[in-house]
Amino acid sequence: MSILVVGISHNSAPVHLLEQVALDADGVVKLVSDAVASEHVTEATVISTCNRVEIYTEVDRFHGSVEELSRLLVERAGESTEAMLPHLYVHYDDGAVSHLFQVAAGLDSMAVGEGQILGQTREALRVGQELGTVGSALNVLFQQALRVGKRSRAETGIDQVAPSLVTAALDRSSRAVGDVAGKRVLVVGAGAMASLATATVARLDAAGVTVVNRTVARTDRLVAEYGVRAAPMSDLGVEIARADLVITCTGATGVLVTREMVRAANPEGRPLSVIDLALPHDVDPAVADLPGVTLVDLAELAAVLHESDAGREVVDVRRIVTQEVAAFLAARRQASVTPTVVALRSMATSVVDAEMSRLVGRLPDLDDASRLEILHTVRRVADKLLHEPTVRVKELANEQGAVSYAAALAELFALDPEAVEAVTRPEGLA
């Protein structure tokens, strides 16, 4: 079994394609279910964010699995296979491990080092666990990825060097309406990104912050935590008319903020900045043509953030990720030979027990003390004979190459394949 990742992200596709494959919570569940239903897939989960959709699977066959998982993403985009395939990427086995660790560490984010991806990785694990589609392989992989992400942020300043999407968007917005301090801000949405936006503008001393969302419970949480004002979605147009800065991040399907709505809310053409952090987008791109309106969207932010350099912190995080990938792969390779080693030692124990039974049968007058001393001696001989081969096979398992030392060991000692297969993997190793 091997780990396979098929995905699409801001690094491989333009924003309009990412919008077409963007998933809500139900969409994530459906994609995970479809993935695990594929013929060669035994485990599956999905990381879905505003700038990536990645299917993580354990598979028993590479080619058939790649084709099937790619088809699932192509179908969701509603594009032809020819149009989509150049924008999909594939990571397999060791490469899949490295990719997930980089994602969790924030190295693959649009805003390098942003912290939200760690929660989104944790959410992917939770969804897979609840659906029963994450087994031992993906569970161990994702748990370790979360530890890598936490270590990267604990040992470096990566999360402080690179701006978050919200911070970068506000920086672009300030060119049109100035700093947030003293401005009236409208946040549309109440999810993770909206919460981050609300917390950020509240910290920057906005004159007033209003949150509009369809779900009252989520809005109430933001009101209680940040002291903002809540308004129903039906008042969206009215609230836009009161705002200097609008930040949208609902993840809803279809445009919420239309050109006509903004024109009616701002007939005099006063300076109004609209930040659209949603995928698919919440705001009609045509609002940018209205007098006084400045639109900042993900496409613009992608270009800006791509040019930013996290410098030394990125180098340090890459070093951590490299160490963690090497350690994880070494542990996994050693674990792969463990069933064979256990089966070999079990066979040796059986041989010792059988020979001792024969000896006791041939020497019925042998006293207990002598019999025990002989048993210990024979066991020490067996252990010494097996010690070097079992140590060496674990060491050799870490070497790159096509040779399967576990298979060679099983062949040399004529181990029963069923006996090897029956050995349970040690907890914590994939």
List the helices and strands and how they pair.
Layout: E1 2-9, H1 15-21, H2 25-36, E2 41-49, E3 52-59, H3 62-77, H4 81-84, E4 89-92, H5 94-105, H6 116-131, H7 136-155, H8 158-161, H9 165-177, E5 184-188, H10 192-203, E6 208-212, H11 216-226, E7 229-231, H12 236-242, E8 245-248, H13 259-265, E9 272-276, E10 293-297, H14 298-306, H15 311-362, H16 368-396, H17 405-412, H18 417-422
Helix pairs in contact: 1-3, 5-7, 5-15, 6-7, 7-15, 12-13, 15-16, 15-17
Report on the architecture of this protein:
This protein has 430 residues and is of the alpha/beta class. It has 18 helices and ten strands. The chain is 57% helix and 13% strand. The strands form two sheets. It has a six-stranded parallel beta sheet with strand order 7-6-5-8-9-10, sandwiched between helices. Strands 2-3-1-4 form a four-stranded antiparallel beta sheet. Helix 6 runs antiparallel to helix 7 (136-155), helix 12 packs across helix 13 and helix 15 packs antiparallel against helix 16. The chain is elongated. Residues 424-430 have low confidence and may be disordered.
